[in-house]
Fold this protein.
Amino acid sequence: MHVRGFTNHESSGTKCPGTYLGIVEKLDHLKELGVNCIELMPCHEFNELEYYSYNSVLGDYKFNFWGYSTVNFFSPMGRYASAGLSNCGLGAINEFKYLVKEAHKRGIEVIMDVVFNHTAEGNENGPIVSFRGIDGGVFYMLAPKNIYG
């Protein structure tokens, strides 16, 4: 399940479309359908602008919708929270925790899709925003001559 995509359209009828709280609004419906587990696509901070460029066919801009370009595996995506980035991201943390607790109250398990080799740091030419800045050789498999694979 994609956090933003699941309730982003107006047809979802949620008060908080495209957010953790939007999913909470739909948990009873999921339970009625017999759903007992949801797998959330990446919902930790990621680089949405990784592919940002103008799409002349659609007349708008492309961005990373799916979330496979992680900046921090330990921070819920602030832009998926109705609170946004308020209070240094604490609103996003609390909303994500609330989503998980509400799902569990209904007997719905929550699995997080995490791909540890997809980060916003890319290769040796990418930005240093996370693990590479700490110790790239520990966190990434390097080819000979310390080249990122």
